[in-house]
Design a protein that fits this description.
Layout (H helix, E strand, L loop, with lengths): L4 H4 L1 H12 L21 H24 L6 H19 L3 H15 L3 H9 L5 H23 L3 H21 L8 H6 L4 H20 L7 H22 L5 H18 L2
Helix pairs in contact: 2-3, 3-4, 3-8, 4-7, 5-6, 5-7, 5-12, 7-12, 8-10, 8-11, 8-12, 11-12
Subcellular location: Cell membrane
Protein name: Adenosylcobinamide-GDP ribazoletransferase
Catalytic activity: alpha-ribazole + adenosylcob(III)inamide-GDP = adenosylcob(III)alamin + GMP + H(+); alpha-ribazole 5'-phosphate + adenosylcob(III)inamide-GDP = adenosylcob(III)alamin 5'-phosphate + GMP + H(+)
């Protein structure tokens, strides 16, 4: 039986990726979990759309604040950064922040076996999850503020795309725990070749920006190697607990996005 056109065409896959990752577009009526794997290669373009959607209003808001008499540059950047964060949370339904908090609780507990997964699936927020949220949200707010004050809006557009690329890299580093779960169905679209192409594209983008003078050359290996180390640690934890789930992927997005913003300040 032939697959529906939206599962095989690139525009359809990009639309499904954007509908799953954000609330910017409504999901297709016939879209199901089986469409998560085929749309995985489009996570990067979907992240760019998200970056544009949250950065453009932030830029306009900053301009309005900046043109006020006796405007404080730092306060204007801090308020615009908070708006960027709020729009990012709203646009993604907080989906990946939830995964970061859940994984923080489960990993912080030191639990093994099924106890680990019981804590991971618990919707209640614990102390370790709260600490992970505070660290990630605070770090991201500060780095976004720095980029805004420096006028580096391009990095804010690219950060969500980098974070979604982390799903592809992370899925290539560890197997899914439950192939029929949302995390497992997403990982089904990953492959070493796809991860390699995304890594090449990321390196070329970083080198291109360095060539244009947007950042120093030494930041290219720092960003790449640091990101590999972070994802390797998450993948090692996943393999020790039986495989990757959607919460691991969500945490990978947020920590990857934070590292990208921090390593390019």
């Amino acid at each position: 039986m032939a697959l529906p056109q939206h599962r095989t065409s690139w525009p359809g896959r990009c639309y499904d990726a954007l509908a799953f990752l954000t609330r910017l577009v409504p999901p297709r009526p016939d879209c199901s979990g089986r469409d998560l794997g085929p749309c995985l290669p489009c996570y990067g373009p979907a992240g760019l759309c998200l970056g544009l959607a949250v950065t453009l209003p932030c830029w306009l808001f900053f301009l309005v604040l900046w043109r006020r008499p006796q405007a404080d540059p730092l306060l204007c950047a801090a308020l615009a950064a908070w708006l960027w964060m709020a729009l990012e949370v709203w646009s993604t339904r907080g989906l990946h922040w939830d995964g970061l908090a859940d994984l923080g609780d489960a990993s912080g507990s030191g639990a093994q076996g099924e106890r680990f997964w019981t804590i991971l699936r618990d919707s209640r927020l614990g102390a370790f999850g709260a600490l992970h949220l505070l660290l990630a949200f605070g770090g991201m707010w500060l780095t976004v503020c720095w980029h805004i004050q420096a006028g580096q809006w391009l990095w804010l557009v690219a950060a969500p795309a980098w974070g979604r690329a982390c799903v592809i890299w992370l899925a290539a580093l560890a197997p899914p725990r439950e192939p029929d779960s949302l995390g497992g169905l997403t990982c089904a679209g990953a492959s070493p070749a796809l991860a390699g192409w995304y890594a090449l594209a990321a390196l070329l983008a970083l080198c291109g920006l360095a060539l244009l003078g947007h950042h120093a050359w030494w930041r290219v290996p720092v960003t790449a190697l640091g990101q590999f180390f972070i994802l390797r640690q998450i993948a090692t934890l996943a393999r020790s607990r039986g495989g990757i789930s959607g919460d691991f992927l969500g945490a990978g997005i947020q920590w990857g996005q934070l590292w990208f913003l921090a390593s390019t300040v």
